[in-house]
Amino acid sequence: MKIYTKKGDEGETQLVGKKVAKTHERVEAYGTIDELNSFIGVTISKISSKHSDIHNDLVKIQHELFDLGGDLANVTKKENWAVKEEYVKYLENRIDVYWNESPPLKKFILPGGVTGAAELHVCRTVARRSERKVLLIKDEYPIPPDALKYINRLSDYFFAAARAVNYREGGEDVLYERGSDVFK
Predict the structure, then answer these.
(1) Which domains does the chain have, with CATH numbers?
(2) Contact at 8 Å (CB) between 165 and 114?
(3) Local structure of 20: helix, strand or coil
(4) Residue 155 pLDDT > 90, yes or no?
(5) Where is the Cobalamin adenosyltransferase-like domain (predicted)?
(6) What is the spatial distance between Cα 159 and Cα 95, in angstroms, rounded to a whole number?
(7) pLDDT in tens, 32-55
(8) CA dist list (Å): 158 to 39, 81, 85
(9) Which residues have CB under 8 Å from 32's CB, separation 6+?
(10) Is the pTM of this model over 0.70?
């Protein structure tokens, strides 16, 4: 089997249920999810072995993002979505663990710190962009009911995990200098 099919040479691609331009907003949405998945792969390669819990979370998230991409590529009247509420609940649990592990936060922070934390901040920003892309398509065709909650929690997860990695590595969050206390 060859990797290339030549079917997309004219700028179109096949969704489940419809052929669309490769510039279609739905293709853009699941393409951004795929981009996030790639950044997570880079992050996994840069996180030290002392973060096995975060490593395991990230691999789990990669599989869930594949599920989400498949759901977003489907424009049929689907009722049995791959993305489930349990994905959201798991993320909320992990967010709470990492948030409670890190020192209290009073000010905004800049993306950065140790390498693993900085990579997690990149994932956070791509997750936010993914959320915006999915919001653009939610009215045209059905999306999983928990998709937006999941993507929203993902960015929170990456933020909390980045702070935990900085803390575990003895690094510090980079405080925004001109900011006043915003978290009480």
Answers:
(1) 12-73+86-169 (1.20.1200.10)
(2) yes
(3) strand
(4) yes
(5) 3-164
(6) 8
(7) 999 999 999 999 999 988 899 999
(8) 12, 24, 19
(9) 126, 129, 130, 133
(10) yes
Structure-block tokens of residue 58: 């990230």
With a cut of 70, say whether residue 20 has pLDDT above it.
no
Q: Can you tell me whether residue 75 is helix, strand or coil?
A: coil
Asked if residues 30 and 69 have their Cβ atoms less than 8 Å apart, the reply is: yes
Measure Cα distances from 21 to 12, 36, 44, 76 in Å. Answer: 4, 22, 33, 17
Residue 76 phi/psi, 5-degree rounding, is: -85, 170
Half-sphere exposure of 8 (CA within 13 A, CB side): 11
Q: How far apart are CA 62 and CA 131, in angstroms?
A: 16
Residue 18 tokens read as 């419809």
In this structure, what token pair is assigned to residue 33?
């999810």
Pairing between β-strand 109-110 and β-strand 12-15 as defined by DSSP bridges = unpaired
